[in-house]
C-alpha cells in the first residue's frame, strides 16, 4: 500500500466535510464513508485518487449516496 500518508489525510478531511455538510458526528460520518465504495477506490493506487482533493472525494461519496438511494 503506497501513499498511506496522503490517503490518511484525505480520508480525515473528507470525513470532516461529510460531518459538516450532513450535520453528523465525526463517528457517524466515518462509518458512512467507510461503508461507501469510495474507500475501496481510494485503496487502489491505480485510480490516482490519493492525488485528488477532499472535495473531490466528497463528490464521489455524494454520488455513491445518490446511487444507493435510488435502489
List the helices and strands and how they pair.
Elements: H1 4-22, H2 26-34, H3 37-43, H4 54-69
Helix pairs in contact: 1-2, 1-4
Give an overview in words.
The structure is a single chain. This protein is mainly α. The protein has one domain (4-69). Helix content is 72%, strand content 0%. The chain contains 4 helices and no strands. The protein has helices at residues 4-22, 26-34, 37-43, 54-69. Helix 1 crosses helix 2 (26-34) and helix 1 (4-22) crosses helix 4 (54-69). It is globular, with a radius of gyration of 12 Å. 18% of the residues are buried. The model has no long low-confidence stretch (mean pLDDT 92).
N/C terminus separation: 33 Å
Shape designation: globular
Instruction: Tell me the strand percentage band.
Output: under 5%
| Number of DSSP E strands | 0
Provide tags for this entry.
71 residues, 0% strand, globular, mainly alpha, 72% helix
Give me a quick take on this structure.
By secondary structure, the chain is mainly α. The chain contains four helices and no strands. The protein is globular.
Amino acid at each position: 500500500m503506497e501513499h498511506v500518508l496522503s490517503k490518511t489525510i484525505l480520508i480525515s478531511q473528507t470525513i470532516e466535510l461529510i460531518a459538516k455538510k450532513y450535520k453528523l458526528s465525526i463517528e457517524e460520518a466515518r462509518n458512512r464513508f467507510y461503508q461507501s465504495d469510495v474507500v475501496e477506490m481510494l485503496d487502489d493506487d491505480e485510480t490516482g485518487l490519493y492525488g485528488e482533493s477532499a472535495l473531490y472525494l466528497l463528490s464521489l461519496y455524494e454520488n455513491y449516496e445518490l446511487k444507493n438511494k435510488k435502489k
